[in-house]
Protein 1
Amino acid sequence: MTLAERAVEPLHRRLGLTDDELQAIRDRLGGRAPNDVELAMFSVMWSEHCSYKSSKPLLQTLPTGGPGVVAGPGENAGVISIGDGLAVAFKIESHNHPSAVEPYQGAATGVGGILRDIFTMGARPIAVLDALRFGEPNSSRTRHLVDGVVRGVGGYGNCVGVPTIGGELVFDGSYQGNPLVNVMAIGLLEERLLTLASAPGPGNLVVLFGSTTGRDGIGGASVLASATFADSDPSKRPSVQVGDPFAEKLLIEASLELIGRGLVEGLQDLGAGGITCATSETADRGGTGIRIDLDAVPRREPGLEAFEVLISESQERMLAIVRPERWPDVREVCERWGLPVAVVGRVTDDGDISVIEGGEEIARIPAAALTSNAIVHQRLAAPPAQRRAAPAPGAPTVVSDRLPERGMDPGAVLLALVGSPNLSSRRAVFEQYDSTVGADTVIGPGHGAAVLRVKGSKKALVASTDGNQAVGVLDPWLGAALSVAEATRNVSITGATPLGVTNCLNYGDPTRPEAFWQLTEGVRGLGDACRALGLPVTGGNVSLYNESPAGSIAPTPEIGVVGLLDDVGTLVGPAFTADGDAIVLAGASGAGLAGSEYARLAGAAVEDGPPSLDLGREAALQAFVREAVARGLVASAQDVSGGGLAVAIAECAIWGGLGAQVRLLVANSPAVEMFGESPSRIVLTTRPRHAPALELLARQHGLPVDRLGTVGGSRVVIRLTAAGATGAAEDRGGDVADELDVAVDDLRHAWEHGLARTLGWDS
Amino acid sequence: MSRTGPRIAVVTFPGSNDDGDARLALDLLGAEAVPVWHTDSELPPGTGGIVLPGGFSYGDYLRCGAIARVAPVMDAVRRFAADGGPVLGICNGFQVLAEAGLVPGALLRNRSLRFLGRDVTIAPERLDTPFTHAIGERRPLRMPIAHGEGCYYADEATLDALERDGQVLFRYVGRDGAVADDDERANPNGSLRAIAGVMNARGNVAGLMPHPERASETILGSDDGIGILRSLVASAALARAGGPVGVGA
């Protein structure tokens, strides 16, 4: 496009709206054309980010109800009762594109935004988990992004006084041009204080408090979040918001005081879409309208245009609906916390968002047209013609038979895996976060699911985030279902019962049929898995257009799960606990190495497909482990995931400081048995006298179960023996792979230093 | 619950994050922890001790503690300290006390120039102070740090004087208890002479970077911090009764 052509491009297109969408806007305005201010308001509210216009029909297929669900999708966060009048609020959200453009502020404001979603509902934020995904770890751009994002997460979360207790850090080439920053927050509230983002009661005051409004973050939702982009395009930097965690801390305290004293009728944070979004969403939910006077909005700088005030995404602001007689108390609370506060409008009964400037009405739009009645697109979905990449020239085509080759030391493979970029300790990163503020952290980052006690009770909350893009790129249904299975399994192995699921769906450009097919399959996998496990999806976020000139990201459904443990005293961890304990595997290995860390390490083209998932088996496995923990039969429990059974055992050994003697029957190939990532497997240890009861319980749940060996010594030793079931396996078992035998100290060293070395943080 | 324990004022600055944790830990030890707002110019009547908690007072966008030291409540803290009452600053509270000149030295950025949140091991230098006398036999102590600016610094002459006068209260040590001067894991912020906590000359005002209030219950992984807080509670009871508070008291 030439400059001359660009100049004559009509405004709606420059704002990211299509001609069809302009027509749909006219339809909702009784046939009249929107003026420029109204068009700007529509452009942010009808952005993919705010309207879910491509994903809404898919999301409506998800299971959302269930016992204990107090608030579900559509609210700022999901809320589930945990008994005794308490409830947990949780949600995960993306800040991918801002973090690609300006990693520190992008990540920092991602934390700030999700925290506001939590305390807006009356919940005190008690934890953050951050799921971060980057491209090749040895590229200087990746290192720049990792450093900035980690500092941003820490800079905000540490200052605001909410512990960062877990998350993920994954490297995959598909994120090279488009990193993912997904942040989950958890809050705790008294159910009676649950506050909704609604504007009831015509005549009530609309109060804005928190930071002043400036020109930062103009068009963040439409420009950044809802279009593909060239990486680090500096022209988009002004669309990234700037975070002020100190203001957020004051906002948390003031908001919770306002809610605790019953001073507000409704509360909504200002995020994407700013004042436009907060007013239209609260009015639409309340069945009311809002009349807003722009001259009353406290500003950071003079000379702001009306549309800028309406769509600015300046951070750390809240909108409260207040009864007139309570305004003096509301003002006193805000001012005591040092926060600017102003009455900026009134709730009306006309159903419209009307905007006044200089005494004149400059915009009037039905609230529903901006939110619940926004446009919905039926996108075209089509699977790719060729779903598997051709093998690279000269690469071995059947990974499972080639590695470990005879004569290769499988112990060396295990050391390489535990020290690899995706499996090594994340300590170098999470030590930059405050994981203990709040004095609730029972288990912090680093060893599986995170655990927080609930003060004043015996209860604990258990949380995990997981996403599987490596399988997702091969089979997006399976990738999503596996992500749910792994996140919930990580919670169940502690003994906790998963309560619900929040999800961040990171996919490509929905106008590309293949990318929309990936999203469709992902949502189907998410729904299937949640139904099989009996869990509600209580909310989340959809991030599309995750593409760069280098291509689309691997489809990445990031799943956050919160579980409840009734008695924290029964908590089971993954580390081996005692010499002589029996090691028991519940579940069985299945064929397929595609998408595994082992395949990545081997660098071979993957032609055997990913392992399959039986959701009924998964549900039975999780029910079994919870019952086994409750009956006191389990000393430690660890799920088998990245790096397979050998890595799972190695981690139990490293964390417990105890070795293991294990004998594996080779039903598939040795590589599949040791390093395959087929799901629905848990490594348990138990006192030898409890082993028969544990194995019986597994069988009663219809699960295969196998006594693998014994905890003890200072080495991890895995011997492979023929299964005897099939001739082929017998042959392989007899002649492939030497015994695996590695010192726990060597494993620990590889595991502890792998990440820092990967990122060049180690000398 | 009615408490017979001493009243301990826990100051809340805007941006304090550990005020609630500190009050909870003190309450568990039988004290009556009372929140005090940063603009208050007087302490609650009968206050026997003060805690300045961790956090990011006023956002700490300037030097840590540089704004908090001129908060109205700090005049009351100074008067209380001048009268000999026990004052404990934890993390940001230590930074505030150093900025206010109530304890010697300064806290610089960590040697790594990164925020550090992890467990450390510290050992008390002496057990006859208002902050350490109830620690007992369980030593060294394991508890978390969480700070970006915790590298203790003073000039050589001051450091020599602190050591000579017994004002070094805690040092970072290895798990074996040996002082960890050059051990990056054990003394992660690079504090000079591995100093984790110091006192004023009179011995009634102390600051430390690690968080005893976050290590006050076994469910949190360690209750090694209790000894420090229990010492403070006992000292506060003594101060309220009009007894002397200070080293050897």
Note: The helical segments of chain B are 19-28, 72-82, 92-99, 156-164, 226-240.
Protein 2
Amino acid sequence: MKTLIARGHREFAGVTYHHGSEIPSGVLPPEIVDKWIDWRWLDELNGTERRSLYRMFPAFSGCNESESLTSDELDELTLPA
Amino acid sequence: MVTVKGLMSNHERVSTTSYGVPLGAQVTLPDPDGKIAAALSREAAERDLAMIRAMNAPAWQPTEPEVRAPIFPDNWQELVAQLDQDIVERGVGVDRKKLVALGQERFARLLEADGEARNERVIGTKTDLTSWPSVQFAFATASALATGVPRRKTSEAYAGVGDEREQAAQILGFGDLWKAIQEPRAVRAIYKFRDTLEDLVFGRSLLERLNKNGRARSSFFAGGSGQRVDLFRSWLSVLQPPLVSIEVVNPLWSLFQWAAQDKAPPVDSLSLAQEFSGLRAPSLRELKLAQAVLNGVLLNLDDWTLWDYCGRCIRASVDHALLMSWRRELVKRYPVVTAFHRHVASCFYRREGDHLRFQPRRYRLFIDRMVSDSLAAVSALVAVAVADCKPVARFQTWVFTEQPPTAIAEIYAALARAFPGARFQLDIK
């Protein structure tokens, strides 16, 4: 899965995305994503390079996709069975 | 001929003259059977044997120190096992809507903290703030991982000293990042992000554990400990019905006072913070620091280990010399606890050649186990005493019930029976 990161301060549909902040998947139409990547307004990072916060907490962010937690997080921060 | 003269000046001088054995005469010894010579020979042989034994001593046999142990009622294990099973089966009631609403609020805060952290020069757009290797790489690239701990000299390494200081200087995870002194604002921003992230991870797992009846079940609620207890605390407002908390106040002090049989009055962290900071109204940070110093001294931490412990509690570096002066003051004030630790530590020496070497790791393990077991016993005793009030969670120093306890005296009586002479204080909210 890919994580989209804004380069510079960008605005789309009335929402401002600051430099380095994540743009949730599904917000930008695919053609805009392609254009912004070509214009270097956007970085498309691998999910292992930078995890998506929206996918980590789908119940709180409203994201449709989800991402599993790491084994360290599961061992140290979550409720065991 | 030999002449010996007495040398005592205040006595009359005495001269003794000996002419030796005349040539050809037979010497008559006082030991005609040779018994005395045989005894002398035997003694010499025993001395030699003892010396050889001492030089080749067997391996040191470590002995566990004898410390006071709590006195439990009969069938205690079965009682606690039954209680824990009840707690796990009952689960904790959670209001799903409230949980999601609070989660959304915290997620917005997480994005805000992420933005703040990315304003810092050391953190690039590709830095994954959820991953320690990524953050470590970002700091290392900016040469911002230097600490204020003096480096261990070669002469110290050769002499085998300064090991603790070297360990204290290591930055091995998010918990150690406060030691990096060059980018304090970035460190604060990362901690703000990290705290919110950890809260949300716990919240996510709480949501995933919720069943159709609105209750979350987990073995963690029966005797859990560590960081997750603090995370659970941060979600208390979403639990239903509102729980009653029974907390042991200043548990380490009560425990060591009981173990060492100290009669000194209980410690007030506020007055300690006032004394250390010189302020009449110390801030929350100063209160936490005073509590950390006290706990560190109670656990017999010293030097850079104490510095590391206190730094972790307040996430800031404390002046080492100042910390040591506070430690000396507390050690003087509580000599019985200090003597208790000296007694326990004396059992953790290992023979190495002709001397004994202290084993700090084994000693620390023993103290940690003693504290952990005793606090687990305290929470179990409190939970058993309030078993009728539907306890839903018990941690080392906390018990949560759905109904308020009716007989508080019973809780104190149960604690007094198990820990005779202890002065545990409970805070019931």
Note: Strands of chain A lie at 2-6, 10-12, 15-17, 22-23, 42-46.
Protein 3
Amino acid sequence: MSELKNDAPKLSEIKKAHPFRVPDNYFEDFSSRLHTRLETEKQALPKPKSRIIRLLKPAIGLAASFLLVFLLVFWPLKSFLPNYMAKNNSAIETTITEEDTYLSILEKIDENSFFALLSESSDEEIDDFNDEELMSYVSSNFSEYEIYLETDNE
Amino acid sequence: MKSEDSALIAELKDDNQRDLAFHKLVKKYQERLYWHIRKMVLNHDDTDDILQNTFIKVWKSIENFREESSLFTWLYRIATNETITFINSKKRRTMLPLNDATDYLRDNLISDPYFEGDKIQMKLQEAILLLPDKQRLVFNMKYFDEIKYEEMSQILDTSVGALKASYHHAAKKIEEYLRNTD
């Protein structure tokens, strides 16, 4: 205060009082007026969400993001490149079908049946040779002695 | 005082007691906050709007009050921010430069039916109006409310040294104005 007297003597001479006043009963009524406004504000505020929704919110958000990515990537590809997508899809389907078929056959047959099937197919291949071709193949690849031995064994 | 406020804060955070506790809080601080705002905007009607906005904000954000400062400091800070926001919005609406709301506030002062000071007090208010917003705030808080610099530092988020310098400059400017208009 003494500092103020030295630095600002004119200011320190002025009586330190509020030159303002308030309307009658202003502070008595203020609380009730504020209460009325607060009630209006409370109605305007969004209701708090239930606990389940709050807990599920991250999972729902994640699922929604995946769906959004799917819609943004897959759906435009399907719409704008229908031929490309159809080709890819049929290729995938074919591969899967063939693989499934072979696997199911192999699972069903036992070892003997498997070799029988192989020998059947060999016979068929042999049937495809005629006698002349067989004779020429044998005479060119085997000696007479080997042929004799094979014939003798039988 | 502090323990009283702590109890009040606990009640405000309890859903079952909130309404009554808020009523107590308003009754306790309404006058001090009113005068703090009034000294900045001068006009009663503007002060009334800002005071209501301040308490509405307090109601909405009481859950987030972490008690790092006292309740009084927190309330003052909200009231100060609301007041500065109000003055800035007036400046924008009247297309005034951001540092100049003097004319608007002087009109407020002259037309205020609730001003009952004498000639010298009117002159003091005019001198205060010429100060920049921050200096005006510091001067009012120190000169009229006699708030300690340390507390003011928490409210205004400014260092004690800067506040002391600000008050000193403000007092000098006011003294000069009073001397020149004698």
Note: The mean pLDDT of chain B is 87.
Protein 4
Amino acid sequence: MSRPVTAREAGLLSCHVCGQLARNPRASQQRLRCPRCDAPMHLRRPASITTTWALLVASVLLYIPANVLPMMTTASLMGSQEDTIMSGVVFLWESGSWPLALVVFFASVMVPLLKILALIYLTASVQSRSRRRLLQRTRLYRLVEFVGRWSMLDIYVITILVALVQFQGIATIQAGPAAIAFGAVVVLTMFAAMSFDPRLIWDPLSDPADPAESAHERPAHD
Amino acid sequence: MTDPAPPAIPVATVEAPRRFRIPLVWIIPLVAALIGLFLAVRSYYEQGPVISIEFRTGVGLEPGKTRIKYKDVDVGQIVSVTLAEDGSHVVATARLAKEASRLLVDDTRFWVVSARVSGSSVSGLETLLSGAYVGMDAGKSQEARRKFVALPEAPVVTFDIPGRHFSLEAETLGSINVGTPIYYRRIEAGQVTGFKLDEKGKHLDIRIFIKAPYDRFVTTDTRFWNASGVDVKLGAEGIQVNTESATSILAGGLAFQTPDSSVDEPAPADHVFALLRNRDEALKQPSSVRQQYLLRFSESVRGLSPGAPVDFRGIQLGEVVAVHPDIGSGAGDLGMVVEVAIFPGRMQARPDAGKPTFFGKDYRDKDFRSFIDRLIARGMRAQLRNGNLVTGQLYVAFDFFPAAKGGKADWSSQPPSLPTQRGSLDELQTALLRIVEKLDKLPLDEIGQDTRKAIVGLGRTVDELENLVKRIDSLVGADVRDTLGGVRETLAEARAVIADSRKLVASDAPLQQDLRATLQEVSRTAQAMRHLADSLDRHPEALLRGKPEDKP
């Protein structure tokens, strides 16, 4: 056979803790433990799709208040002002510092949105056991995992501003409720990316060759 | 493929499956959904009412920026500002906080707050930096309302200040304006809130507001007067300067006070008072208890004007109402009749429970008449007196003249007349006339001649005295004169010696003159040498060729 053999197809699994290779007893509804260090063993990350879906739904829900509610409140002698992410971008753009506006727009609006969309696409395609564009999807996953931490930029800026600009009576900056929601979105998408098991992208390759195998493969996902 | 693993690989331990596995991870989206739902519900319920306010102009109104503040607390924001359809005013739409919805009643007022400087105060300075905002004053009505018309400027008194409104009726406005302070014993107790002409334009209706707790000092008998500026009065009492406070000098002011004897009830809100010209006028006894009398004087009444005081040993009892000549009564005796008003209440000390009073409810005319009769029997008369020597103002004084006889009050005439006494100035005049007459009778010519004779005799005596002194002088002189002569010669010689020596040293002495001439010559030589050196320096060839000729 020219196509590569996976550990699962070989009926083997390795311990994530001590690296011990073990044979899969292939019992249904089973929970496996490492014969050497007694750590739980599994072929694929357990409940990967479910967890990813749950976290994605949560982050989609929180993405709305993160963009609608004010991100920070600037109170100065000139009066107080509440800024959402988009109004901040618009303000930066209109005041001429459009490179900064672009950075904020990409880091705070586009990246979380694209990340969520990418994860939804990945999870949905895995769940439908799609066999198309396997390599591109794996690359997309790597990109999502890498880019995730950078969308905390807005939160960093606000944290610094809130800490620095505290001149009572002249100017104060306070974080708004959107900051919490936005932070939660970023963290949740990072967790979603982590819980997604990229090996699942490649699993459908072995499906048609051995449909019976996949039938008793299913419980392992739980 | 089924069993390619080397035998060294152990089989994983199989554990019994857990009975239930609740997918804990779904709690996260559930919590997120709950949070989102909570935020949505909260923002839905927090969304307050939308109102529209009509403004005359859009000065200071910026959509999305201008705040609406009630008691300096943010309650809303202007959302949009549009012109009215007919372009006569500006309509601003505002979104208010939910808590503010019960403040939006029929008499709620809105106005634009911006920096304002008036005569007595500076307000709204914070708006210079933050921009104008819309002020709000919640009304007391129960009827809800969503459309309002803004006031042209901030109201002086807001609904939340306890106190009462009253009205004042005035002839002129003077320096009174909206916001003019009202003083009670020099404490600022209220403000003018507005004024308008009455329908006929005859007088002004000034609305005032008296703050609690001062409003309970406003009784139905309270007098209000204009305390604007400085009240300088030149009357029979001399110069009087009255003022209420520095602010009232600059910006005008009103004042009120209730007479001490007043026992009236607190005035109801919106009671109408008369605004009097000044404090004196305001604090006079009420005119309800006043009596008119006629006084007949035989002397001139020049300087006596209506309003002049009627005085009893320094206490003002009343005032002159009118002065007119009395032609009809007697043929030869032309008198001047002065009509005066007396306030009987001022003739008595504080009201005493047991005794009858000359004012108030149980005032009886008969008591007062017998009282006056008794006084006249003891010699009380009216007299014209000079109140001010500079201006010649007269006033009417009542005083006791034990020498006066035969006077009686005539209660039959209407109004009754009282006996008078010639004025003190009049008496002084007659006394002076008498002195002048006596002076006139003196033999001034004879006295003058006698005096001249005496002076001539005195002159002769002085001449003789002079001769006597001369004679004494010649007798004593001889010896002393010789000695003095010798001394004088010696002194003259000494003076000559000094003069000679001085000549030697003097500036015009020949020695000095010669020396000075020599020195001047030397100086001139030196100057010539300098010229020569100078010209040689410039034209060294002159040594060989001679001086170059000046060319024209």
Note: The CA atoms of residues 80 and 501 of chain B lie 114 Å apart.
